[in-house]
Amino acid sequence: MPFDQLSTKLQEVFKQLKSKGKLTEKDVKVALREVKLALLEADVNFKVVKQFIKTIEERAVGTDVLESLTPGQQVIKIVNDELVSLMGGAQSKITFASKGITPIMMVGLQGAGKTTTSGKLAALIKSQGKRPLLVGCDVYRPAAIEQLTKVGKQVNVPVFSLGTDHNPVDIAKAGMEYARENNYDVVLIDTAGRLHIDEVLMDELKFIKSDVKPREILLVVDAMTGQDAVNVAEAFNEALGIDGIIMTKLDSDNRGGAALSVKAVTNKPIKYAGMGEKLSDLEPFHPERMASRILGMGDVLTLIEKA
Amino acid sequence: TKTRDNFLGAVDDVLRGFKKIDEELYEELEEALIMADFGVDTTLNMMERLRALVKERKITEPSELKNTLQEIITDILTAQENTPLIVEGKPNVILVIGVNGVGKTTTIGKLAHQFKEQNKNVVLAAADTFRAAAIEQLQIWADRSQTPLIKHEEGSDPAAVVFDGIKAAKARKSDVLICDTAGRLQNKTNLMKELEKMGRIIEREYPEAHKEVLIVLDATTGQNALSQVKVFKEVAKVDGIVLTKLDGTAKGGAVVGICESLKVPVKYIGVGEKIDDLQPFDPEAFAAALFNTEKK
Ligand SMILES: Nc1nc2c(ncn2[C@@H]2O[C@H](COP(=O)(O)OP(=O)(O)OP(=O)(O)O)[C@@H](O)[C@H]2O)c(=O)[nH]1
Ligand SMILES: Nc1nc2c(ncn2[C@@H]2O[C@H](COP(=O)(O)OP(=O)(O)OP(=O)(O)O)[C@@H](O)[C@H]2O)c(=O)[nH]1
Ligand SMILES: [Mg+2]
Ligand SMILES: [Mg+2]
Questions:
Q1: What is the band of B16 on the pLDDT scale with cuts at 50, 70, 90?
Q2: pLDDT tens digits, one per residue of B238-270
Q3: C or N terminus of chain A, fewer CB within 10 Å?
Q4: How far apart are CA A274 and CA A285, in angstroms?
């Protein structure tokens, strides 16, 4: 897909339009249809798209078409600005407790990347001079604890577990105890993947939460997720009150519209981006880059500047 | 469960409210398809066909509209011949491929169990030598179905594992050899080349075997699923799709566009994490579930 497909389409839409004057309601409607399709193709949730387009429409109608910009780019700029602000403005990071242990809980659907991301975060936190401990609470998935143990070894962070014969709530509690006794200051809890509609397993997370009192509950979301992302994010947020989101597998060629969807329904910051399988492949999340990516364009700002 | 109904009930309720076929009703259906991950192109294409059929058959009942749409979808999903995974009286080798975390290893565990139930002699090969504890994970599944597992060290050459798997399958006169592979994103050229090489080994070392390549897709995945199948098809002859995680609230509608444009049939669906949670794909039930008229 050419990177500036949307841009090209919008230029076509506005071909007849003079490059001066104000955008009329009709101009904007025609243009926003293209934007809407682009967002849907990028997997942004349908309802989120509808709401978003409404906001843009209100903002764009009556806007002066700046001399330096053609109308198409003018609309793109408004869309881009609105996308960036919706996606969280400046990036945010993990916050640590001022004293005592900072417990962090990783939650999400099956296969989203929780265990891998736990390892990545542990490495990052360790590099900041802290003493993290990984706690393996996935007693369901075959070899989940072995996986976490290997991941821990790779980043040189110890892993606490009680094997698969214990209840995850007890393991989390014991892990906190162990951390206290051994002077660890961050506890990263890897939980089993679960469906947001699995009431029993969602309750299990609530129990862990009430025992451990995590400073951060991070929802791990696969960037390839489609329309269902809103259901998942909403359900996890309602059950647990999440503190942030980590998007994984952003090294793929997906457009990643799920990022916008989950942000829109939870209003929680996207904190990090998983960029690969290696344990160093974790980056701070950049809303502007994500906006360009969702729109299917290169760097929007340079594109606009070039006009 | 209750929660599931809350998420899914809506579409059907809305549709029931319509007294006549109008633009609004078409829009509702269009919306339902988009929300089921059909993607824009496939959705518009479906709607066009729906309008044509309504005209042709002089349909006036709103309730028929949905059934007609289901019929169109079912037709697409049944257009590709759905051949069985294995051929009787021949050795068989199944290569399971796909992007990260979609459910390849779990699906292999379930398949091995199904073949064992049919009294087949099965061998598994742990050719995901990359992901941490992938071999241990497959070992647990192998134990569950009491199937022998051919494995090497983590980090070793996956093609060598496939090679040894074939050797073992031959020696044991196995009916089925199933090879697990590491999850790989389709845009990672090196990893795709590695997969190609595994395919070549199978062709060269096991010419007498019936070969089946299954791509595993996660029902939660959106439009990227299309690119996954397209690019994997460039390095492997993909014979079928296993659509996993349909026990969640995602509808997996992306497979309809895939089925049509890439001509790959869906063969199985994954509906849970247990050993029995693998079912043959039923296009009609799938199409019906898109609008939640029928509960699984
Ligand atoms: N390419 C890529 N792969 C990733 C990324 N994060 C995780 N993965 C891969 O995704 C797959 C699943 O990752 P896991 O960490 O096991 O996911 P999980 O959420 O712990 O899975 P369950 O415990 O089974 O629910 C593995 O193959 C990982 O290597 C990422 O950012 N990029
Ligand atoms: N709910 C549900 N979970 C599933 C299904 N199939 C697999 N899973 C879960 O999804 C997660 C990933 O499954 P795996 O079999 O490890 O996936 P994979 O494709 O082998 O992953 P990698 O080897 O890391 O690429 C695990 O937690 C599985 O239990 C399914 O049909 N439904
Ligand atoms: Mg895990
Ligand atoms: Mg696997």
A1: confident
A2: 999 999 999 999 999 999 999 999 999 999 999
A3: N
A4: 9
| Interface ipTM | 0.95
Q: Which residues of chain B have a CB within 8 Å of the CB of A150?
A: 132-133, 154
Task: Say what the pLDDT of residue A86 is.
Answer: 87
Rounded alpha-carbon distances, angstroms, from residue A48 to A36, B26, B54, B204: 10, 20, 31, 51
Say what the pTM is: 0.95
Q: What is the pLDDT of residues B262-285, one digit of tens each?
A: 999 999 999 999 999 999 999 999
B34, A46: Cβ pair inside 8 Å?
Answer: yes
The tokens of B198 are what?
Answer: 């595994």
Return the structure tokens found at A160: 């606490």
Of A143, A144, A225, the CB nearest to B222: A225
Contact residues, B window 20-39, toward A, CB-based 8 Å cutoff: 31, 34-37, 39
Poorest-pLDDT segment among A83-87, B90-94, B101-105, B162-166: A83-87
Contact A43 B223 (CB under 8 A): yes
Q: In angstroms, rounded to a whole number, what is the distance separating the alpha carbons of residues A87 and A179?
A: 35
